[in-house]
Amino acid sequence: MDMRGKTVLITGSTDGVGRYVARHLAAEGANVLIHGRDAGRAQTLIEEIKRDGHRAPTFYQADLASLAEAKRLAEAVAADHKRLDVFVSNAGIGSMNGGATRQTSADGHELRFAVNYLAGFLLACLLLPLLKAAAPARIVNVASLGQHPIDFDDVMITRGYSGSRAYAQSKLAQIMFTIDLAAELKGSDITVNSLHPATYMNTTMVQAGGITPVSTVEQGGEAILHLVRGDDVADESGLFFNGMKEARANPQAYDAAARKRLRELSLKLTGLSSA
Question: Which candidate in 161, 167, 200, 254 is catalytic?
Fold first, then answer.
């Protein structure tokens, strides 16, 4: 995909791998919409992109620990743009951000499930009209190789909580949603894929977990960019990638009944369905 003039929304793009992707797409002539919680970080990125001689990105501030803010983010993007060529759902928190104890979102949901999965689910659903208007368009969900099956009797992990399990469950949920949405959008000229960009990149998230990085933001960023604009994946949808290569996710991702339960729960929790 030639990115010149294309409109791309990247959540969690004022830091880490999202920041890398934003800078590179701006350099390729894209109209980049950046998102984050910190206006100061956003302004630093905007100034860097402008100094490099590229079009300044537009910043949308929102805390995705709140579904109301996620909805306002989608509404703000829709108010400003008639089309969206690419949506990169990248915002997330790691297993140890904010400490090892169980935390909840503004809506009372387990925090990692809320930020890493539910917010992206809601945004993708609300942004579909803009993506359809731009077709061919792409959705890229930044997931992880760290995946844990969802216990539908205790999705919010009120028993036996661990940050690593919560994180891994939220990432598997992203992959399950990817497969479901790709099937729903078949024939629409919108592709939906997910990926593990790279293992333990040198990011704030990894550092918060006290983990020594083993790969770079550049490696992860290039894997994301591959799904954003690679010609070889233009017609691929519903897939999970490990870096640049297609891979298999946790078996629960391919369980249609489990995906149906997750979708019904997600529609209810986000207010998109009263069922």
Answer: 167
Residue with structure tokens 């190789």? 145
The full DSSP string for 46-113 is: HHHHHHTTSPPPEEEE--TTSHHHHHHHHHHHHHH-S--SEEEE-----SSTT-SS--B-TTSSBHHI
Verify whether residue 254 is a known catalytic residue: no
Phi and psi, residue 80, nearest 5°:
-95, -20
Tokens of 52: 């490099």
**Topology given in CATH for the domain delimited by 7-269:** Rossmann fold (3.40.50)
Angle made by CA atoms 30, 31, 35, in degrees to the nearest 5:
115
Could you read off the pLDDT of 115-139 as tens digits, one per residue? 999 999 999 999 999 999 999 999 9
Domain ranges of the chain: 7-269
Question: Closest by alpha carbon to 110, among 30, 166, 50, 182?
Answer: 166
